[in-house]
């Protein structure tokens, strides 16, 4: 039985499709929009429209940008010899919030997972190799310490064997099975600082 008029039920259903939004949160969001003034609702709609029409992935690293190249890749003061490989943009942002890492990034998009039938595309691997060719001396694997993360790290180490590059991974403070996006900046900084070669 539907408790709300169909348009509200539809909105609840759409909100519930978003990550980490359950049915109750979706209901609260939908109902709050019903009672919000028109200007605020229109501003919300315009913000969504603007994000969808202007934000894309950086052509170099995969970070989010409203241009071709993100602010990290275009920052000449950053150390291009250090390349931090992360699973997602959320992980990149988590490390950036620590304020301590001054190298560059590479976003994989996903991890190897035979169970989920996920693999790293040839395009991603070729882009990573091209980044390493451009004078990278150290590749830091800042990947969540899950089974998929460990498999991905081993795979990347193999792929990069043809290059004269040190491959390290983040260390202490990140428990096995943890996701980087949930750790505070100090923990991520310590993990980056105490990285070890693999």
TrEMBL record:
Zinc finger (C4-type): 58-73
SMART domains (UniProt xref): TOPRIM
Record Pfam families: RecR_C (PF21175), RecR_HhH (PF21176), RecR_ZnF (PF02132), Toprim_4 (PF13662)
GO annotation terms (biological process): DNA recombination; DNA repair
UniProt similarity note: Belongs to the RecR family.
Function: May play a role in DNA repair. It seems to be involved in an RecBC-independent recombinational process of DNA repair. It may act with RecF and RecO.
Entry protein name: Recombination protein RecR
Species the sequence originates in: Citroniella saccharovorans
Name of the gene: recR
């Amino acid at each position: 039985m539907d408790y709300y008029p169909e348009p509200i039920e539809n909105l609840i259903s759409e909100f519930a499709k978003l990550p980490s939004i359950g049915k109750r949160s979706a209901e609260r969001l939908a109902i709050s929009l019903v009672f919000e003034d028109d200007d605020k609702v229109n501003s919300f709609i315009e913000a969504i429209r603007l994000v969808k029409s202007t934000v894309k992935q950086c052509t170099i690293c995969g970070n989010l940008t409203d241009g071709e190249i993100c602010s990290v890749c275009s920052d000449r003061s950053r150390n291009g010899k250090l390349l931090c490989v992360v699973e997602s943009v959320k992980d990149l942002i988590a490390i950036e919030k620590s304020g301590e890492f001054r190298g560059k990034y590479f976003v994989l998009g996903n991890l190897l997972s035979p169970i989920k039938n996920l693999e790293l595309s040839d395009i991603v691997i070729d882009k990573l190799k091209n980044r390493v060719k451009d004078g990278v001396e150290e590749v830091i694997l800042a990947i969540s310490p899950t089974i998929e993360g460990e498999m991905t790290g081993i795979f990347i180490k193999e792929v990069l064997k043809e290059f004269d590059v040190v491959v390290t991974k983040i260390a202490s403070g990140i428990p096995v099975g943890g996701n980087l996006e949930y750790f505070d900046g100090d923990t991520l900084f310590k993990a980056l600082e105490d990285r070890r070669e693999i």
